[in-house]
Amino acid sequence: MADPRDPRPLTGEPLSLDLLNTRWRSPVAEDLLDTLAGYRIWLSSVGLADRCTADAAGLGATLAARSALAEAVLAAEEQREAELAPLNEVLGHGRLIRRLTQAGPEETVEVDGPEWLAGWLAADDYLALLNQGAQRIKRCAHPSCVLHFHDVSQNGRRRWCSMAVCGNRAKAARHYVKVNGG
Fold first, then answer.
1. Is 178 contained in some domain?
2. Is 77 part of a structural domain of the chain?
3. Domain range for residue 95?
4. Phi, psi torsion values for 52, nearest 5 degrees
5. What residues contact 46, with CB distance under 8 A and at least 6 apart?
6. How far is CA 3 from CA 47, 49, 114, 133, 182, in A?
7. What local confidence, expressed as pLDDT, does residue 164 receive?
8. Omega before 105 cis (within 30°)?
9. For the chain, which terminus, N or C, has the lower number of CB atoms within 10 Å?
10. How far apart are CA 148 and CA 141, in angstroms?
């Protein structure tokens, strides 16, 4: 559940996209991760506050992960080859350890240092989304919106980050053109 202090217009997306959505326009460019306080809010919103320390090292590693994710997602949107080294570098800071215990299968994430946990989890989540279908990772169709979402609609035709915000803006613009003749 999102932290009530979280000012972002879209929360609750998978972790990798939620990290990308820490930048938005309202109508000016906003960045939740421009301060440690914002980083704390984001960690709380995504349920990592008890697993990650909101310090400068963690923020720096998370910003590196966001930058790497942004490059990968933008390259896919532009249908060009992505520079994968930054994302692979983030992924190189951690690993998933699987074990069989008396209680059953167990998965544990190990990272080089605690500062990498949030960023590594977001990068790993991106790989999981790609495995589910890269075409389901979308940017909002509104031209002034920079938010991303995971399209889980049955037919895969979702276009807006929020029908109530961007979808209605587009409808209003079409109506204006129709009524005023262009």
1. no
2. yes
3. 15-133
4. -125, 140
5. 15, 18, 118
6. 9, 10, 22, 29, 42
7. 67
8. no
9. C
10. 10
pLDDT digits (tens, 9 = 90+) for 55-67: 999 999 999 999 9
Closest CA to 119 of 28, 53, 29, 25: 53
Other beta carbons within 10 Å of 165 = 16
Q: What is the 3-state secondary structure (H, E, C) of 38-86?
A: HHHHHHHHCCCCCCCCCCHHHHHHHHHHHHHHHHHHHHHHCCCCCCCHH
Q: Is residue 176 part of a domain?
A: no
Q: Is residue 10 part of a domain?
A: no
Give me the number of domains the chain comprises: 1
pTM to 2 decimals?
A: 0.89
Helix pair 36-45, 56-77: axis angle to 10 deg: 70
Tokens of 170: 């587009």
